[in-house]
């Protein structure tokens, strides 16, 4: 498969590789992680009924590819919690500018809980259009994202 | 970001490590959005996190650090509704055990909130801006609120200025008494990028209209036209309640933090269509579009035709006149059907201040309501349904926010009234 390279802004920098989990619609953080957080599941299964891309898919350890997060303002708190539970994605890639809920969550997890989600934003619409579920993604410190 | 010398000293750790982390959180958050300075918060805070769920330990640990350092909010704050109120909504024995497990830290968390600056015992509501509660910011106030339905109301209906802050960062801003200047705090961020033309044949259901708008514009600012024909111009309590419910749906079905309604909301009255940014997109909502949105809601009940256990009305919490109106309509239904009690218990959710005032002003009416299966509670229905045992129950609601986050089945108000008194589900209401 052809390798494609995208350049974004590292919001919280880091390098990693993993499997793409793609939502082409806004990612509702509370709706998606609600069950996993309440039940403290080792594996987080997406519980957002409104998200046909992700509903009932496993999110743990994946590289979440989304436009932005949406929904309840507990969204950041949910990200902070799944950081501690260790059942969240290892990285989050935003095609758009990161939104205020996700930003608060990943920044507080980083500063107060010493848990870093690798976060790159502004990867562009072409990134979200072309990336497919299950593709291998490599993220570099400088925000370069390679999809193959 | 350019900071005052005092704020820079805090960031440099000269007032202790914990306050340094608070300032760092706010500064990094602001810089992520290109904020070049902080502005003083001029209204009282409101926070989303009201629940002592065992799983959010990182949050409690963070609060312990703040309390340990002697920090608290600059101004007293209100907070979202409590998750439980057993004397008003008794979930059952096993469910209660599950609640005690899930929200086992409720009492300890409320102690933390008191130490951090909770306004008072009645401060637990998502509609803190209602006059009975009194946390009502003025036009132009800078805030760092969370709770998506309160944020969108404060911005749109009151003309205050707050971003959609998440639980946690709200408190960080409130402790330093400043918010980073970006997004919905700025004039540019309050410009609309969508023109929404409402062309329905009658006044649309607020919750359904909000859902359609939220799903379409997501986090953008819509400028909505065509509503003054249904609501009149300017604001009054009925219009405010309509916009409260519409806004909650835009914020939960999408991520709307601000909308303008032509000839109705303050900034739209002031500036009109100059609020529209050049190059805006257009979305037309007619009867057909609303029907499409309604029919697309997934049905998450195991048995589509099962009789509901409860009906939940009031997410976000009901204003006093909405509470009175629902009671009147339910009693009218009972009279019409010559029945003494509803087939399906109805729970009306409202702010503790309103609930307590109603019960103390009308003790006899309240007892009659209970005998008719009409209940008034001040908890959060979403939190109630977070209990997996309660979440499995077939529950009907008129709230699009509750539908979005739970298995509750959404119906329009007129259908909700019918279901309450007959126990029968109409054919529509989710595919």
From TrEMBL, chain A:
UniProt domain Phosphomevalonate dehydratase small subunit-like: residue ranges: 49-111
Keyword Lyase on entry: yes
Top-rank taxon: Bacteria
Stretches of the chain forming a coiled coil according to its record: none
Keywords: Lyase
Signal peptide: none
GO molecular function, one term: lyase activity
One Pfam short name: AcnX_swivel_put
InterPro entries listed in its UniProt record: PMDh-S-like_dom
Protein name: Phosphomevalonate dehydratase small subunit-like domain-containing protein
Organism name: Ornatilinea apprima
UniProtKB/TrEMBL annotation, chain B:
Provenance organism: Ornatilinea apprima
One MF term in the entry's GO annotations: lyase activity
Protein name: Phosphomevalonate dehydratase large subunit-like domain-containing protein
Any Pfam family hit: AcnX
Keywords, comma-separated and alphabetical: Iron, Lyase
Domain Phosphomevalonate dehydratase large subunit-like: 1-409
Highest taxon, organism lineage: Bacteria
């Amino acid at each position: 498969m052809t390798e494609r390279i995208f350049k974004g802004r590292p919001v919280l920098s880091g390098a990693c590789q993993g499997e793409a989990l793609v939502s082409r619609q806004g990612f509702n953080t509370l709706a998606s992680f609600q069950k996993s957080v309440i039940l403290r599941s080792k594996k987080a299964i997406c519980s957002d009924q409104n998200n046909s891309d992700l509903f009932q898919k496993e999110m743990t350890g994946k590289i979440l590819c989304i436009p932005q997060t949406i929904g309840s303002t507990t969204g950041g708190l949910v990200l902070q919690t799944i950081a501690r539970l260790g059942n969240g994605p290892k990285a989050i890639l935003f095609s758009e500018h990161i939104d205020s809920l996700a930003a608060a969550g990943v920044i507080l997890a980083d500063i107060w809980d010493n848990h870093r989600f690798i976060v790159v934003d502004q990867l562009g619409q072409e990134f979200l259009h072309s990336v497919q579920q299950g593709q291998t993604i490599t993220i570099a410190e400088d925000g370069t994202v390679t999809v193959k | 970001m350019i900071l005052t010398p005092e704020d820079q000293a805090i960031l440099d750790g000269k007032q202790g490590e914990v306050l340094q982390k608070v300032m760092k959180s706010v500064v990094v958050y602001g810089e992520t959005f290109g904020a070049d300075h902080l502005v003083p918060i001029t209204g009282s805070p409101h926070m989303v996190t009201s629940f002592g769920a065992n799983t959010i330990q990182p949050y409690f640990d963070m609060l312990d650090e703040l309390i340990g350092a002697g920090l608290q909010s600059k101004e007293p704050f209100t907070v979202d509704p409590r998750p439980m109120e057993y004397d008003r909504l008794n979930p059952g024995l096993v469910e209660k055990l599950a609640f005690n497990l899930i929200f086992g830290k409720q009492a300890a968390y409320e102690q933390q909130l008191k130490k951090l600056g909770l306004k008072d015992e009645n401060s637990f509501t998502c509609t803190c801006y209602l006059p009975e509660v009194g946390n009502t910011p003025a036009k132009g106030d800078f805030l760092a609120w969370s709770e998506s339905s309160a944020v969108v109301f404060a911005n749109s209906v009151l003309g205050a200025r707050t971003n959609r802050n998440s639980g946690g960062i709200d408190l960080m801003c409130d402790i330093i008494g400043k918010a980073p200047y970006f997004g919905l705090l700025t004039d540019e961020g309050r410009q609309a990028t969508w023109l929404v033309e409402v062309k329905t044949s009658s006044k649309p259901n607020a919750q359904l209209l909000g859902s359609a708008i939220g799903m379409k514009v997501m986090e953008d600012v819509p400028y909505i036209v065509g509503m003054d024909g249904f609501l009149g111009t300017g604001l009054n309590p009925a219009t405010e309640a309509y916009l409260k419910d519409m806004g909650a749906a835009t914020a939960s079905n999408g991520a709307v933090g601000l909308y303008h309604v032509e000839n109705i909301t303050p900034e739209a009255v002031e500036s009109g269509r100059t609020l529209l940014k050049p190059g805006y997109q257009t979305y037309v909502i007619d009867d057909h579009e609303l029907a499409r949105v309604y029919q697309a809601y997934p049905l998450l009940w195991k048995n589509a035709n099962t009789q509901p256990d409860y009906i939940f009305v009031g997410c976000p919490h009901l204003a006093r006149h909405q509470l009175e109106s629902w009671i009147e309509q339910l009693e009218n239904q009972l009279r019409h059907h010559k029945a003494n009690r509803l087939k399906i218990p109805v729970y009306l959710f409202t702010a503790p201040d309103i609930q307590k005032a109603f019960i103390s002003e009308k003790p006899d009416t309240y007892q009659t309501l209970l005998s008719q299966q009409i209940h008034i509670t001040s908890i959060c229905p979403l939190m109630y349904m977070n209990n997996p045992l309660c979440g499995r129950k077939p529950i009907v609601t008129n709230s699009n926010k509750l539908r979005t986050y739970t298995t509750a089945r959404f119906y329009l108000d007129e259908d909700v009234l019918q279901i309450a008194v007959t126990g029968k589900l109409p054919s529509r209401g989710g595919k």
